[in-house]
Amino acid sequence: MPSASARRVSAERAQHILEERTRRLAQRGAVSTVASRPTLLCDLGSELCGLSPAFVARVVPDGPHAALPGAPPALAGLFAAGGQGYLLIDLALALGRAEAVTGGGHVLLLRHTAPRFALRAGRVLGLVEVQPVTPGEAAPPADPLEGHATWHANLPDQPPQSLGLVDISRLLQPFLPSDQPTGA
């Protein structure tokens, strides 16, 4: 057992330890000025995006779909779930990414009335709280992202991750008939 003199810490070291503990405790109780919001976190392979859970009726495993000849690349085809047909949109391509989501992930069935839409994502990671980042300038009306946010995984030494927040109305606009409002 070490002697009492060996266990003593210098006054400088003790002060440093107290300051570090105080700083960590203060960060724990820090109140953010931007309210967090629940978001359905989706993995698109090389990046993350988030959607409001209010627009999603169900999340189901990805499955076979029927291609639509002549459709835009982001419109993957027709998808069936629960006896209902959905227009299947590849979320990565609809957001302007170069590569489509590969199969084996998840499909988000949206609460849109007619036509019914579904979004294919690599994986749905779950419902998480994100901190929206205050935008420097407003997104263009045609941009399907309404902004960005950060997400803190509950893993030690994991830095916050950045993700795009999807505006469902703007995302669906190119796939709606021209006379139909975007009431997603």
TrEMBL record:
Residue ranges of every copy of the CheW-like domain listed in the record: 40-172
InterPro entries named in the record: CheW-like_dom_sf, CheW-lke_dom
Source species, domain of life: Bacteria
Region (Disordered): 135-158
Protein's name according to its UniProt entry: Chemotaxis protein CheW
Source species: Teichococcus globiformis
